[in-house]
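hiii so um. not sure if this is the right channel but i have a protein structure encoded as tokens and i wanna go backwards to a sequence. like what aa goes where. can anyone help
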């Protein structure tokens, strides 16, 4: 089973996590020392075997853990903070269990992604998570370019020493007025959420930021297409048998354009 662990505030640990730490036959931990410290802080005694489970040993550990599960033992997988598999070890283990038809469950709990979204103050009815921003500026700018027209809010992680450069690149690629929120040290003593435009956040970040960083970027505002650019789409629908007015209505609705202006643009194109 996967289990989310507190990001900083020990009181966020669920009773199910406490029970699982104390009863699991095997505890697979990203950092065994941190997991033992967590259990101690929770007043829980880990009675099962504790093994390391991080990126460099993940491939070697999975077959052994699968055999443990197949033999009926309970394996608990935890990372240093938050939800396993979300930019942390866990995904490959789950995929391997699914492939072998072994049971998998998850004990829900803290996640920096959803916590940052809730605190951002930005529209988030639809969102996507993009992991860590690329480290190098050139690759980062290409990645930011893919977000230029993304209508959903975007959540991503960034290292504190690269935050200023990342936000400066974002201003260059996405423009200074796009809104965002930088969430630092969520649930911890020095939690801070800074909201504003990318330009404002880039100026703030020059002063330096510390701790774990989660950034929420506002989704792009839809841009209405020019009616003249949609004429060919209308004519294509008309060629398939749709009435001109109906074709204009369909294309205009799909592209945020004025139906009347699009109709006039089609007539103008036909007469030219």
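sure thing!! here u go:
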């Amino acid at each position: 089973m996967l289990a989310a662990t507190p990001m900083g505030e020990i009181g966020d640990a669920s009773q199910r996590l406490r029970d699982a730490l104390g009863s699991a036959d095997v505890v697979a931990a990203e950092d065994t020392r941190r997991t033992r410290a967590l259990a101690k802080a929770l007043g829980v005694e880990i009675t099962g075997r504790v093994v390391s489970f991080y990126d460099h040993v993940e491939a070697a550990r999975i077959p052994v853990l699968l055999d443990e599960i197949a033999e009926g033992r309970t394996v608990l997988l935890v990372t240093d903070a938050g939800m396993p598999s979300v930019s942390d070890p866990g995904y490959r283990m789950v995929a391997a269990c699914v492939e072998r038809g072994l049971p998998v469950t998850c004990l829900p709990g803290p996640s920096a992604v959803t916590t940052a979204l809730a605190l951002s103050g930005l529209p988030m009815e639809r969102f996507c998570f993009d992991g860590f921003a690329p480290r190098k500026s050139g690759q980062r700018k290409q990645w930011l370019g893919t977000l230029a027209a993304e209508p959903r809010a975007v959540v991503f992680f960034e290292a504190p020493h690269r935050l200023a450069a990342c936000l400066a690149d974002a201003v260059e690629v996405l423009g200074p007025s796009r809104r965002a929120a930088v969430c630092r040290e969520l649930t911890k003593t020095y939690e801070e959420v800074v909201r504003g435009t990318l330009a404002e956040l880039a100026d703030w970040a020059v002063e330096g930021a510390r701790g774990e960083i989660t950034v929420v970027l506002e989704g792009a505002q839809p841009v209405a297409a020019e009616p003249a650019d949609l004429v060919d789409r209308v004519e294509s629908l008309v060629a398939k048998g749709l009435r001109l007015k109906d074709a204009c209505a369909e294309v205009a609705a799909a592209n945020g354009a004025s139906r009347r202006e699009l109709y006039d643009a089609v007539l103008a194109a036909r007469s030219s």
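oh and Strands lie at 2-3, 26-29, 49-52, 75-78, 106-107, 127-132, 153-158, 179-184, 192-197, 213-217.
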